[in-house]
Amino acid sequence: MTVYAIAQVSIHDRARYDRYVQAFMPVLMQYGGRLLAADEAPETVEGDWPHQKAVLLSFADTAAFHAWAGSPEYRRISEDRLAGSRATVLLVRGIDAG
């Protein structure tokens, strides 16, 4: 079942975060992930949104997400993300269309 990773990101070191972004796509694609949306100016429709960026990723299933997130390649590039930003990330299961 498809899963979606939803990230709320606050960036405090643009250079470190941008270094992460530059290396991100090849690692994501290597593990079958898809970048569905990334927006540094999301429109707040309801409630408060104190973050600078919203990101939406999809993976075939939770195993694929965890393989990516725990991979040596992602752990290496995530050092820049962790140094350059603070994030809240949710993993949400898709709805079975059947």
Automatic annotation (TrEMBL):
Domain spans labelled DUF1330: 2-94
Record Pfam families: DUF1330
Annotated InterPro entries: Dimeric_a/b-barrel (IPR011008), DUF1330 (IPR010753)
Protein name in the entry: DUF1330 domain-containing protein
Originating organism: Rhodocista pekingensis
